[in-house]
């Protein structure tokens, strides 16, 4: 590897020097930790557990802790930590639920010291107390945290968060008795190690699991957290309620977060998936990383600053089986390559655009914005801070508002509320949704639903034409061969006549076979002017009803014979022969109709009088009942079209209604992207019920799990205030009934309502009636309860 510039940092009597370097590991790393004097680093993973020396030019392997012929699961590590007070003491979290300590001072090859097997599931995190040598804390997938005294053979305290899996635990750097724990349900809890019965504080930090947390090394009350919602948040814990003071939006789930030494506002993060880079953020400028390390080729699993007082060296391990030392001077600075422009859409379509002031003011063609007293663009100036390492740039913000009358999103809300996605037959769902779209003046969407009904309806529900079925009843069938007549003869119009063929037979008759020809039903057909009765024609074995008959026009008007009044009130039928003749019509060249087969010289043209369109009756090229798979490519393109146009609502609704008919044609990632986009829009419009219905009807595993998280309800006994550990109404500690109505003193077996302030409650109706006349708790505790 090419040598890069060296750096030397003075740390009291010690000096750290080195360069950006790496070494290959035998297996992917899950976690790394550095010793107190910053000369060695331990790398732990499922199949690796080694110690490397940090020399000036390279990593040198010093010790392999995986010894023995058949290494047990105790060597399969999910986390590792090197004690910052005792240089020979290590602790690992095993994937089998064991917590193992290692004494490097042992003379034997096996350095294992103590083994704790109290956790029932994987241990996600271990943490030594920063000043107490013998105190070790662990957090497990089983939802419990345990504090071990290394002078004893078992844990001294067990902390139950009454929540889902514990993902991280961290002792406070400034408060001796305080530690923080993060959970998969998005909560963060603060505990006092002297009180294992109940946490001191709990707050919801993220939407989804909180994977990591880290106390600020200098500021006593700052706690940084990172979660699956792709955010890093900094909380001020010195106030009565946890206050979010900074928030950084990343591009992937945050797996690790570490404050940078000697830099109050800098922290480093790495992602759990997708993104392989390590980012150093200045939390005052959260929109772009301060520095980036891009050396790893796979997900970064562990990061640690080499020394607690040195901000220039960062160590990292990865799933690409490499261990890196990054020198901060070699980091990439994204701000040097970033375009200083920003663009953002509002919920109702408003557009905000920010750019350099020089770009806006130099645009001489810019028209003034007609916004009354409001000035566009708006300029924002920030006072320069000498501690910031950013160039000072003044920006201008332009806001472009949409016309509320023409670009309102009312249609989106009404459509979401009125659409039916399940619970009725497919055809009824399509008809209902088409009607909703039509009422909201969205004709294209309405037509799409109608076409979907036609394409995917069960052919068994359609009438199959028999020998005695008339052609008018075939109008419900979906296939039709049609074309338009461009140039009409001068004789066509309101004065057009019907010519009847009497006794003339043709050799080129077109036989209308059942099931092979289709005519759309025109309900607005009118009688031809001048005809007194209802004319009848015989087309082979299929008889036309007069209401459904399309009038027949002739192209060659020169051959039109003068019409005479009939002598009879009812016209006589022509003689039925074996080879029946159709009414006389004009001849049509083959090239005029794309559906005429090679041996056909003529087609029968049936024309509604008012529309002047011609429908050819000919032999179809394919079966009338097409399988659903025939239309799938077209429907797939249609869904992609709607999604690209921004109407993800239509794409998801069709996806749900069609179900298995189309689901296999679209890849899972695309479906998940559509679902997430639509659910996000629904929640922004506070359409919670519709959002939940979409989640329930989804078949994507990543979507269906959204409303299954945080569904466990942990309750405390209303008498002794301790958690209810068993399943029932009786508390196993005070042996009292937990769900007793404070008004009638009977066990509540139905709806139970309780006050979140004093924990007393009872039957819903009883509590409502009580609080109508009194504001004090009916249990007599003196608390002022309120029913909302």
UniProtKB/TrEMBL annotation:
WD repeats: 116-158, 203-245
Compartments in which it is found: Lysosome membrane
Keyword Oxidoreductase: no
GO cellular component, one term: GATOR2 complex
Taxonomy, superkingdom: Eukaryota
Annotated spans, Disordered: 490-541
Uppermost EC category: transferase
Signal peptide start-end: none
UniProt xrefs under InterPro entries: WD40/YVTN_repeat-like_dom_sf, WD40_repeat_CS, WD40_repeat_dom_sf, WD40_rpt, WDR24
Bias kind Basic and acidic residues: ranges: 496-511
Biological process (GO), any one: positive regulation of macroautophagy
EC number(s) reported in the record: 2.3.2.27
Record keyword Zinc present: yes
Catalytic activity: S-ubiquitinyl-[E2 ubiquitin-conjugating enzyme]-L-cysteine + [acceptor protein]-L-lysine = [E2 ubiquitin-conjugating enzyme]-L-cysteine + N(6)-ubiquitinyl-[acceptor protein]-L-lysine
Keywords carried by this UniProt record: Autophagy, Lysosome, Membrane, Metal-binding, Repeat, Transferase, Ubl conjugation pathway, WD repeat, Zinc, Zinc-finger
Record pathway: Protein modification; protein ubiquitination
One Gene Ontology MF term: zinc ion binding
Membership in a protein family: Belongs to the WD repeat WDR24 family.
Function comment: Catalytic component of the GATOR2 complex, a multiprotein complex that acts as an activator of the amino acid-sensing branch of the mTORC1 signaling pathway. The GATOR2 complex indirectly activates mTORC1 through the inhibition of the GATOR1 subcomplex. GATOR2 probably acts as an E3 ubiquitin-protein ligase toward GATOR1. In the presence of abundant amino acids, the GATOR2 complex mediates ubiquitination of the NPRL2 core component of the GATOR1 complex, leading to GATOR1 inactivation. In the absence of amino acids, GATOR2 is inhibited, activating the GATOR1 complex.
Protein name: GATOR2 complex protein WDR24
Organism: Haplochromis burtoni (Burton's mouthbrooder)
């Amino acid at each position: 590897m090419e040598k890069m510039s060296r750096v030397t940092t003075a740390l009291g009597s010690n000096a750290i020097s080195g360069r950006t370097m790496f070494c290959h590991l035998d297996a992917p790393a899950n976690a790394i930790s550095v010793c107190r004097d910053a000369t060695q680093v331990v790398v732990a993973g499922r199949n690796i557990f080694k110690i490397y020396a940090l020399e000036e030019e390279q990593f040198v392997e010093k010790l392999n802790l995986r010894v023995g012929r058949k290494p047990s699961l105790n060597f399969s590590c999910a986390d590792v930590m090197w004690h910052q007070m005792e240089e020979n003491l290590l602790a690992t979290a095993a994937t089998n639920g064991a917590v193992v300590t290692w004494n490097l001072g042992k003379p034997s090859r096996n350095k294992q010291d103590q083994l704790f097997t109290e956790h029932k599931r994987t241990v996600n995190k271990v943490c030594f107390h920063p000043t107490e040598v013998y105190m070790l804390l662990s957090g497990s997938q089983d939802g419990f945290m345990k504090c071990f005294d290394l002078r004893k053979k078992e844990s001294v305290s067990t902390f139950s968060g009454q929540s889902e899996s514990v993902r991280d635990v961290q002792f406070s750097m400034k408060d001796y008795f305080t530690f923080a724990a993060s959970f998969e349900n998005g909560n963060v809890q603060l505990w006092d190690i002297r009180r294992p019965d109940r946490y001191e504080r709990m707050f919801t930090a993220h939407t989804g699991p909180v994977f990591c947390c880290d106390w600020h090394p200098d500021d006593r009350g700052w706690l940084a957290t990172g979660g699956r919602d792709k955010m890093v948040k900094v909380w001020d814990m010195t106030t009565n309620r946890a206050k979010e003071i900074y928030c950084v939006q990343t591009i992937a789930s945050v797996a690790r977060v570490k404050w940078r030494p000697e830099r109050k506002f800098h922290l480093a993060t790495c992602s759990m998936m997708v993104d392989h880079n390590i980012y150093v953020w200045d939390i005052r400028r959260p929109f772009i990383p301060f520095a980036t390390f891009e050396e790893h080729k796979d997900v970064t699993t562990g990061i640690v600053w080499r020394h607690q007082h040195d901000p220039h060296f960062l160590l990292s391990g990865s799933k690409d089986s490499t261990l890196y030392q990054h020198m901060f001077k070699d980091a990439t600075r994204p701000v040097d390559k970033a375009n200083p422009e920003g663009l953002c859409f509002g919920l109702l379509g408003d557009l905000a655009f920010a750019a350099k002031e020089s770009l806006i003011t130099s645009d001489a063609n810019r028209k003034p914005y007609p916004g009354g007293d409001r000035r566009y663009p708006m300029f924002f100036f920030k006072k320069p801070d000498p501690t910031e390492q950013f160039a000072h740039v003044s920006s201008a913000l332009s806001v472009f508002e949409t016309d509320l009358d023409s670009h309102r999103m009312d249609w989106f809300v009404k459509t979401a509320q009125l659409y039916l996605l399940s619970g009725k037959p497919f055809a009824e769902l399509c008809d209902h949704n088409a009607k909703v779209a039509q009422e909201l003046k969205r004709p294209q969407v309405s037509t799409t639903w109608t076409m979907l009904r036609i394409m995917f309806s069960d052919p068994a529900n359609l009438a199959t034409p028999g020998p005695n079925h008339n052609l008018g009843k075939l109008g419900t069938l979906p296939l039709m061969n049609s074309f338009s007549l461009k140039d009409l003869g001068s004789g066509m119009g309101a004065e057009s006549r019907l010519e009847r063929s009497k006794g003339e037979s043709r050799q080129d008759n077109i036989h209308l076979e059942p099931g092979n020809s289709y005519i759309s039903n025109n309900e607005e057909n009118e009688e031809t002017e001048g005809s007194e009765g209802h004319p009848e024609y015989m087309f082979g074995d299929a008889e036309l009803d007069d209401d459904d008959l399309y009038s027949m026009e002739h192209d060659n008007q020169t051959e039109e014979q003068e019409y005479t009044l009939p002598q009879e009130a009812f016209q006589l039928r022509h003689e039925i022969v074996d080879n029946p003749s159709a009414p006389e019509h004009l001849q049509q060249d083959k090239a005029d109709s794309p559906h005429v087969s090679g041996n056909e010289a003529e087609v029968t043209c049936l024309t509604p009088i008012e529309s002047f369109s011609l429908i050819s009756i000919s032999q179809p090229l394919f079966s009338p009942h097409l399988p659903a798979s025939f239309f799938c490519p077209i429907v797939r393109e249609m869904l992609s079209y709607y999604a690209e146009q921004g109407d993800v609502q239509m794409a998801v609704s069709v996806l749900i209604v069609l179900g298995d008919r189309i689901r296999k044609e679209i890849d899972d990632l695309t479906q998940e992207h559509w679902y997430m986009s639509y659910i996000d829009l629904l929640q922004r419009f506070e359409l919670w019920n519709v959002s939940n219905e979409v989640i329930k009807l989804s078949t994507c595993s990543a979507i269906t799990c959204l409303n299954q998280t945080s569904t466990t309800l942990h309750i405390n006994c209303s008498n002794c205030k301790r958690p209810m550990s068993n399943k029932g109404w009786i508390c196993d500690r005070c042996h009292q009934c937990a769900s007793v109505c404070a008004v009638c003193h009977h066990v509540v077996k139905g709806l139970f309502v309780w006050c979140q302030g004093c924990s007393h409650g009872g039957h819903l109706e009883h509590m409502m009636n009580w609080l109508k006349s009194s504001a004090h708790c009916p249990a007599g505790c003196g608390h002022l309860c309120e029913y909302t």
